[in-house]
Amino acid sequence: MARYWWKVMWLCVVLLISCNAVRVSNKEAADDFRLASYKTFDFQSDATAETAAFEQEFGLLRNEVAKQLQKRGLRQSSGQPDLLVNIGAMISEKTQTRETRFGQDGPYYTGQRRYTWKSQEVPVGTYQEGTVSVHLVDRVKNELVWRADAAAVIPNKKEKLEERIREGVEEMFKEIQ
After folding, report:
1. Cα–Cα distances in Å, from 41 out to 58, 112, 140?
2. For the whole model, what pTM was predicted?
3. Cα separations (Å) of 132 from 2, 40, 67, 168, 174?
4. What is the pLDDT of residue 18?
5. Residues with Cβ < 8 Å from 104, sequence gap 6 or more?
6. Domain boundaries, given as residue ranges, for the chain
7. What is the spatial distance between Cα 68 and Cα 64, in angstroms, rounded to a whole number?
8. Which InterPro entries match (predicted)?
9. Which residues contact residue 106 at a Cβ distance below 8 angstroms, ignoring those fewer than 6 apart?
């Protein structure tokens, strides 16, 4: 029995380690999109008061997107770039809940005959989730040619945040040609 328990435990650990903490969705490209058709890129400059508060995090995002595009043969140019990169981000506060169970959270005193107990969601903590959208726009045609969204829980430590951003951007650009 003890051997079986350890096998199950190791399987759970392996599954948890292999799970990706970043969820990439809405990855789509225009029908005729080929990244090799473009030579240069630059970032859309739409700085607002909201983005100024997160300038360091946006800087990390821009650096990682630039690395991925440079790795694929593009170079950054502020003149007349072929591609414009637009990055959008949203942070939302989430509440983690658990469901009550009769054996664990059941009533201690049932003085009335018509007493009923119902399972319900109980808040146990809060966390922040960040969602990032990256859009590549053909500057000449002024058309969206590629987009992807990624969402993940935002870690509290800066080192973990940098790692999560790197992981997310790599996952977004994984299959781009």
Report:
1. 17, 71, 12
2. 0.71
3. 45, 22, 17, 9, 16
4. 41
5. none
6. 22-96+121-172
7. 6
8. DUF4136
9. 117
